Amino acid sequence: MSRWALPKSAHPMPVCWNRSLPLALIGLATSLIVAASPLAPADPPVAGLIVRLQAAPAHAPERERALTVREVQNRRHLQAERWRSLFAVTGLAQETGLVLEPAGRASWRLSPRQAWTAAEAARWQARLAARPEVAWAVADSREPRLQTAPPTPDDPLFAGPDGQWWLQAVSGSDGNLPEARLRGVPGLQSAWATSTGHADTVIAVLDSGWTAHPDLDPARVLPGYDMVSDWDAGTGRGAARDGDGRDADARDPGDWVSAEDVAADPGRYAGCAVEPSGWHGTAVTGLIAAQTGNGRGGAGIDSAARILPVRIAGACGATVRDIVDGLRWAAGLAVCRRYADALAEDPGCAEWAPLNPHPARVINLSYGGASACNAEYQDAIDELWAHGVVVVAAAGNSHGAPTRPANCAKVIGVAALNRDGFKANYSNFGATLAIATVGGDDAGGAWGGLLADSGLLGPGNLGSRTPGAGSYGARYGTSYAAPLVSGTLGLMLAVHPGLGAAQLREGLMASARPHVRSRWVAECSSANPGRCLCTRSTCGAGMLDAAQALAYAQATREGVSYLAPNWPTVQIDTAELRLAAALGPDREAAAGQDPAEPTGQAGGALEPLALLLLAWLARSLRRPGTVKR
Ligand SMILES: [Ca+2]
Ligand SMILES: [Ca+2]
Ligand SMILES: [Ca+2]
Fold first, then answer.
1. Which of 319, 381, 410, 593 has the greatest count of CB atoms below 10 A from its CB?
2. Is 170 found in the same domain as 135?
3. Is there a domain that residue 155 lies in?
């Protein structure tokens, strides 16, 4: 058997080729048409070519075993003849150390001893492909994994135990100090290896509106709508604060309530807290979409999605009607701007709001009332669901039952955890919730500072009434857990825009990590409503896992079933917990300690808390031209 013959082994094996081909055959190389190189010159070396001969027999060792030795030899000899002829006519016979190995069903991988340069591979590929006896010749190039490089944000607030710890990797053990324990965080850095978002994704933020901020790119904030209807032009009073009712400017003019307001207009401000403006919508927007990697401020969850700001809340919260109309407008449905008097000759809508040209698939709502879901909410949510739109709603911060609409069917209700994965002391809990993730844990509750953390560092504003300079501050509340979920849904849609509403909700739940366990902490109940052990019946399906949520989106895109990892149980039995447990339940269940929030309150926010004024921001704001408007 000559050295270029195929081996006798019943299984296809590598075949070595060398110069020992008959000289007569080498001389047969003829002029060849060299096609344009399919490989860019800068491409890395190519390990070989995959070549299929016309009418090539399939690699079938089991069939060869049924043949006589002579039949196998004949079969291989025939193939060898074809290859020898091909090598001769293309000039490949002059190459040394070529190896032929079976590839695919009936192809062969042809590789040199030393990898070809891209140009060499392209030349041989073109010569082979031009031959009539060759069905195809393709490069056996190395395919890279299809991910964007995991970004390492250079934003100064990103790193460190007091920075944006909730964006860091899941980590920690009982041996770590509390600030190094991050077993409750969603693992966004792992998710960013798959996707950092897509500009086609629209996430609506139904909130107090937005303000210009150095870490918010105005190009990523779509023209939204201001749905706040309460404005009395006659008296110049109303929750809207911007001088009119519904309008196309969704910026936040401030939602302060002064003692003078309450005194002058007690009907309108009954039950309202006297407080400065909270800039709640700017914080929620920034947690989702702050500019990542711009060397200033912090990072956001989604680096590309566009935010649709829909202002539904003015001073002292939001009305159900404005929220429901805001939900519908965000989804692209028709909403009235101005109504005629019900007793007018022609009652009904006097003027329609323009249709939203950028319908959102995900709507974040961090406002809610401590009441049962009502038919008005559920009707709108069902309508949106049918349009493929999901509503993410904060569970509320009253240590009790979830607020509405987090307690409505089909809503993605979000409970807040602390960095360890225990329920945050304030968070509501209940069977209607879909999922839980970190929302910061303040020093409230009977356990005080034990297990407290530095909150979620998000954009804000220094204005006490009307907008001032941008800032960053620590925030706590289910208000701020919800946007982590909304941002993750945005990343899921970037991976697979075809996900339906049910897939978005069920994907989050199916991919969630199991709640943490501890021997020192009791399960959440009405008798133990502070920091407590979440279960599937109190804080949703588990802890948000952004990377697994994207794995769900990828699997669904590829039409295969998502299989959740076999998660290990996370048991946390730290010394702090033992100390805390000795104090009894974190929050006494005694009624009256935590008055329920009035309907329509900014559900979510325990704020403004610990507003941190940051030198970088002050400096950048003083420099002309650095403030983005
Ligand atoms: Ca207005
Ligand atoms: Ca406005
Ligand atoms: Ca930034």
1. 381
2. no
3. no
Are residue 193 and residue 82 in the same domain, yes or no?
no
Tell me the per-residue pLDDT of 327-381, one tens digit each, with 9 for 90 and over.
999 999 999 999 877 777 777 898 999 999 999 999 999 999 999 999 999 999 9
Helix (H) or strand (E) holding 79: helix 69-90
**3-state per-residue secondary structure call for 534-547:** CCCCCCCCCECCHH
Q: What single DSSP character describes residue 117?
A: P
Is there a single domain that holds both residue 118 and residue 222? no
CA angle, 346 then 349 then 354, to 5°: 145
The Cα 468–Cα 466 span in angstroms is 7
Q: Considering the domain boundaries, does residue 151 fall inside one? A: no
Counted domains in the chain:
2
- Nearest C-alpha neighbor of 605 from the set 280, 286, 344: 280
Classified as helix, coil or strand, 51 is: strand
| Residue 577: other Cβ atoms inside 10 A | 21
Entry pTM: 0.74
Task: Please name every residue paired with 390 in a beta bridge, in sequence order, or none if there are none.
Answer: 362
Distance (angstroms) between ligand 1 centre and the Cα of 30 equals 80
**Distance, CA 312 to ligand 2 centroid (Å)?**
10
For residue 113, is it within any domain?
yes
- The residue with tokens 């003015």 is 314
Ligand nearest the Cα of residue 296 is: 3
- Using CA of residue 115, residue 120, residue 124, residue 126, what is the dihedral sign? positive
Q: Which two tokens stand for residue 411?
A: 């809503």
Catalytic residues: 207, 280, 479
Q: Are residues 133 and 174 in the same domain?
A: no
